[in-house]
Recover the amino acids of this structure.
């Protein structure tokens, strides 16, 4: 892996394709699985998890993806190097009975998933994606992914003439009434949302027995700015980290560690689910890989968990919201995150390991800490490191507009992050 300008741009272009292929967590898993297969990883069943067999393995389940490389000669006490990220992003999700027609419009009832910047979803051309459950042969429940990139949905904002105070008092949106997307006008023969979904999925309406569907931005991701210094894309938090971690793991050959990437769902809503970071699947998998209890304890004591999740760059229009001594620049390199109250996991030892890895990778880094008088975000880092008793650090690429429908990052940072993660994994 090299650190020249063309590598930065090529990696960024790969990230744009990854994001546009992955409008939902289920698509992140599908896109990520394809990347892994292309790099020689073999899918295994979560029920028969690897017992430390050397080689490249992965497990895909719903919105979670776990992949690992066991080097030749590994023993039960071979330590782990694990990079974790999350596959979900804040968005709007369809209610089980989504029809919310009124005043001549066909509309959809939606729930708000995670910490959405609601205003950013207004006046955009929106598509629909996720998965449906269909009746399989012998009464099995099968999953079919759905991805409709045609702009079939829109949430029109109220005109300023009908909301005169908006620029002085701010935009107030009621989640029940004001963010229901319209997808057509009512008419006797109008298609329903299920007609559209089943046609896109190629299944019969009678066979649909469940759905996890969500709304996404249909504008293609792209490099923007006069010198293309910026990435404009949805879901950079946290698909940027997913893509960097998978790219780094794909390049690992024979490490001294068992190198692993774990991409969990449901981080934006607290991580407590079967496929969220609080699941016991990861402890069980690591134990199964080690094989015996004494060796496993020794392995964990010498292991490292790297929580990769985007960081806040200093906003030029709101510098007062940021810690003045910790300016975070786009294209300034990966950001190590600190919080004395353990919202981030970094400590002096993991900071030292991070800095040595960055030196070896030839990558510049930055250090983030919140203003003391403002609340701090968090990541899957504290949850996973507590579950495993594993030393950890929190790192992420800087970005602006976190949790907007359309986010902004630097073009160079994702490749530098990949180089750093590759060093930390090996
Ligand atoms: Zn995140």
């Amino acid at each position: 892996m090299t650190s020249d300008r063309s590598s930065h741009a090529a990696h960024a272009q790969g990230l744009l394709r990854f994001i546009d292929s992955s409008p939902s967590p289920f698509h992140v898993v599908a896109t990520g699985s394809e990347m892994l297969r292309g790099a020689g990883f073999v899918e295994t069943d979560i029920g028969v998890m690897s017992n430390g067999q050397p080689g490249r393995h992965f497990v895909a389940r719903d919105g979670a993806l776990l992949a690992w490389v066991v080097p030749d000669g590994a023993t039960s006490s071979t330590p782990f190097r694990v990079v974790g990220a999350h596959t979900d992003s804040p968005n709007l999700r369809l209610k089980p009975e989504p029809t919310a027609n009124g005043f001549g419009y066909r509309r959809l009832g939606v729930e708000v998933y995670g910490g959405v910047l609601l205003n950013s979803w207004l006046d955009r051309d929106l598509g629909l994606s996720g998965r449906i459950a269909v009746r399989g042969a012998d009464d099995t429940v099968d999953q079919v992914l759905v991805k409709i990139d045609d702009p079939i949905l829109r949430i029109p904002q109220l005109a300023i003439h009908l909301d005169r105070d908006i620029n002085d008092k701010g935009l107030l949106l009621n989640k029940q009434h004001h963010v229901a997307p319209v997808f057509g006008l009512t008419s006797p023969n109008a298609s329903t949302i299920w007609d559209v979904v089943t046609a896109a999925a190629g299944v019969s309406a009678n066979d649909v027995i469940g759905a996890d569907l969500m709304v996404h931005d249909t504008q293609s991701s792209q490099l923007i700015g006069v010198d293309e210094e910026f990435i404009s894309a949805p879901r950079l938090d946290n698909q940027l980290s997913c893509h960097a971690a998978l790219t780094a793991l794909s390049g690992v050959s024979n490490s001294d560690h068992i190198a692993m990437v774990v991409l969990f769902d449901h981080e934006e809503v607290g991580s407590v689910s079967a496929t969220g970071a609080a699941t016991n699947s990861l402890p069980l998998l690591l134990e199964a890989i080690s094989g015996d209890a004494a060796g496993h304890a020794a392995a964990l004591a010498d292991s490292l968990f790297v929580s990769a999740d985007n960081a806040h760059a200093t906003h030029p229009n709101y510098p007062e919201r940021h810690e003045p001594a910790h300016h975070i620049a786009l294209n300034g390199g990966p950001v190590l995150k600190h919080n004395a109250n353990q919202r981030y996991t970094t400590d002096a030892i993991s900071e030292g390991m991070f800095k040595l890895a960055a030196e070896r990778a030839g990558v510049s880094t930055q250090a983030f800490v919140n203003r003391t008088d403002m609340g701090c975000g968090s990541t899957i880092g504290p949850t996973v490191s507590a579950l495993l008793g594993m030393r950890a650090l929190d790192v992420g690429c800087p970005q602006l507009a976190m949790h907007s429908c359309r986010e902004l990052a630097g073009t160079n940072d994702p490749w530098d992050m990949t180089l750093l993660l590759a060093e930390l994994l090996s």
